[in-house]
Amino acid sequence: MLKEGTMVYFLMNGYVMSGQIMNVEGNEKEYTFSIEGYSGCEGPHVIYSNQIHYTVFLSQQEAEKYKDNPQMYLAAYC
Q: How many domains does the chain have?
C-alpha cells in the first residue's frame, strides 16, 4: 500500500509528471488515492491501486518507458 507523501510519476500527453500521494483510503489489497497536482474541474481525481504500473509509476525511469504509449497516460480532462 502506498503511503501519503510517496512520490509517484504519471504520463500526460507524452510528458512525465510527478506528484505526491494523498487521500489514501482502503486496505492493503485494494485502496484509492489522489495525486497532489493532478485534479480536474471538481477536485482531485480518485485513482485505484490497480493502476500502479499501468498509469501510475513508482519511478521516473518506469514512466519514461511508456511515454510514447497513450494507453498508459492518465486522463487529461475535467
A: 1
